[in-house]
Amino acid sequence: MVVLNFTLTPEAAAKVHDLLVCLGKFSDTVAIEARRERFTFTALNSSKSAYAALTLDGSQFFTSYECVPTHGGPDSRFTCSMYTKALLSVFKGRLYDPLGRDGAIDRCEVTLQDRPDQTECRFIVKMVCNQGVIKTYKLTYEAVEVMHALFDRNVAKNRWSMHSGAMKEYIEYFGTKTEMLDIYAGDDGRAVFKSYTEKVSNGKEILKHPLVTAVAVNTSDFEEFNIQAGLHIIISVRDFKAIVIHADTLKTSLKAYYSYPTRPLQFNYGCDGLSCEFTLMTSGDYNAVPASSPAPAMLSRTNSRAQSAATERTENRSMRSEMPPPAEPASRRSARRRNPGSRKVKSPKRAEPDPDSLFVTQEEEDTRWDPVDYNKEEETLGWDASAEHDAAIFPTFRDSGSLTRTETEDSNEVLAPTQRVSQIKGLW
Amino acid sequence: MEDEDELPLFAAVSSSARQLYLLLRCINFSEKAHVQISEEGLKFSVDEAGVMEGFAFLDKSLFTSYTFRAPPPQRSSIRDSDDEEDEEETSTNPTFQISLPSLLETLQIFGLTDPNNSKPPWARDNPTSTAFSNNVLGMNNMCRISYDSFGSPLVIVLTEASIRTTCELTTYEPAFADEIPFDRQSLAFKTIMRGTWLFDAISELASTTPARLTLVARLARSQKPYFALSASGPLGSARVEFNNNLAPSTKPPPPTNPPSVENPAESPNLLETFQLSNPETTLRYTYKFSLIQKAARAMSVATKVSVRGDTQGVLSLQFMIEVEAGKVSFVDFRFVPLVEKDGGEMDDETVLEEGEGSGSGMEDEE
């Protein structure tokens, strides 16, 4: 038996409306997790590339809050899933009106009816309006287990923070049809938010028109800006817009935490008992990070890259040594898997003649459409976590990137045979 | 017919096509509308599958000039059989059908602007405007409606500034004569409230995409009126209750509530009138939700609505619409109820009782 009762002020109910609007941009369904002292709305989008968790503090956000999950443990929780649309039809806009006009409510009472002696399980919302109108909604819900995306803020060394109002001005410049957002920290004291769409052409038809909008912001305009210079990180414009617009309703500062492309990024903000976390998948396939990305990961990666020319065994090994990448759409992953070919081709060519240079004609965006002919690379899943493997795509950043690579390659040349032999022995 | 009489049967001039449009738009849920011209005004009626009717009455006071020359009785010889079944006294009044969407299109041919505030800023302070200019005289948005004789088209002439549009709408033979019988003498219940309350409730319930709308009226303990509309759909159910003098609004607010919640300008009563023919019983009628929803336009513009149900369950919604300050018009709807099975009623009953119980519990907490 679950007990869940809480009461919201009109202001809080309006905030619930705002957050549901935001979550509705991520997913059709919203999951609810109620614990003894907090209440969380979560949403995971269909491609599982964006996860949102909005936590309402039991004592701060609610007028009254009571939750006794089924099993009495401190970590016990009640979870269910509902249609965002259904909840939104209950938590409409204009719930809070300082002038007390029609549609404004006096308070909102929510009860969970989930008892064996009752025939129906319902999520009951009661809107008590000022003039004596009471609106009662009984919504069906689905009992589901709620998963959470993990995010380690200690690893995310790159941080920035900016007031949502300012950020909202910037997102207005982004084209409505654009898909990707590249956040780039330049060397010149500016951060660039660039929205763009990959051009997709089908014969003569262009299916997606490339429109690039770059908004350059002085890093001094940020409340906090601590980003490795030259780091590109790419997220979805749609997600970013949804987050900024919601953050703006709270008039708070939006904080971003991330490490390097292909590792998750987190946006975080909150006030008055409402704390919002959005964990987004990032990509960096078409952009480069300069040499100074996290050292250990890079070493193993360059290591494997250098050796993959000769054998795939080492690739397997390095893959094992690395953390598996976060869950991502298959299409992206396969595209990335093929990319090392082009990069590997290009950077050694600058540094020293390489047998792989026969791939040199296949590069840039063409690589995406190539058949998967890199047999040796087929199992190089380890590349997923790579931060710099696309160095060759944008020549601007190639210099520093390839330089490091040559260094590591040199040092690896000595080690490579030994490792390979030992591994072969171990395996066979 | 024409040669013996050049004067039209009916001619009226309105200074505002907008007012006519606003009223007729309320019943715009069907292709054809019946028009009956009488000494008092124009009556438009619209029918939906015989289970819903909408009436809009354009009173002669809406027109600046209204001329109706009742045809002599023999004039309606071809239509006698039809009309005598209906009502004796209106047998000579011309009745015909027209396309309501076309009429509405016609009326808004110059746009739907309110002449009082539609003028662009540069026109408002027009130095050339005199006391006799069209704007001042209210002549810039004229609408003249005329009907020459039986079978002739309904002619609408709209004039704005120097533009004059003449529209002839084909009239058709009347198709139905029977109204949904609503017994005013044996009302089961009646309540009057603000139209926006009803509109709000219906749009609230619409979010559950229900098929049926249940109306519940009764006198709660201590003779407190209770009126509720409920509906249920695939995603859940919703109920909107109207209570007079609800406890929370009369009690002092709990300390946790912000002060803004307590509105000093409290409306006296949500339900202005509340009458039940049999106060001991709970009245419960069910209607098709999509039909009730067709009256939503009227609800949104009405100042007041009178909700009445007769003993047979026929629902009458009468909307008082203020087209101009101090001038009211009425738009009526009638609905035939759905016959409810006992099982469904019992189900609703439990929901209702349970809801009431939790409501009183909530009051006790405070």
UniProtKB/TrEMBL annotation, chain A:
Matches recorded under Pfam families: Rad9 (PF04139)
Record GO cellular component, one term: checkpoint clamp complex
Annotated region described as Disordered, given as residue ranges: 293-367
Biased composition (Polar residues): 300-311
UniProtKB keywords: DNA damage
Positions with biased composition (Basic residues): 333-348
GO biological process: cellular response to ionizing radiation; DNA repair; DNA replication checkpoint signaling; mitotic intra-S DNA damage checkpoint signaling
Entry similarity comment: Belongs to the rad9 family.
Record's function text: Acts in DNA repair and mutagenesis. Involved in promoting resistance to ionizing radiation and UV light, as well as regulating cell cycle progression after irradiation.
Protein name: DNA repair protein rad9
UniProtKB/TrEMBL annotation, chain B:
Claim: Protein transport is one of the keywords in the record: no
A GO CC term attached to the entry: checkpoint clamp complex
Entry keywords, A to Z: DNA damage, DNA repair, Exonuclease, Hydrolase, Nuclease, Nucleus
BP-aspect Gene Ontology terms: DNA damage checkpoint signaling; DNA repair
Region (Disordered): 72-94, 243-267, 342-366
Subcellular localization: Nucleus
Taxonomic superkingdom: Eukaryota
GO molecular function: exonuclease activity
Skewed-composition ranges (Acidic residues): 81-90, 345-366
Keyword Repeat set for record: no
A Pfam family annotated for this UniProt entry: Rad1
InterPro entries: Rad1_Rec1_Rad17
Stated family: Belongs to the rad1 family.
Protein name: DNA repair exonuclease rad1
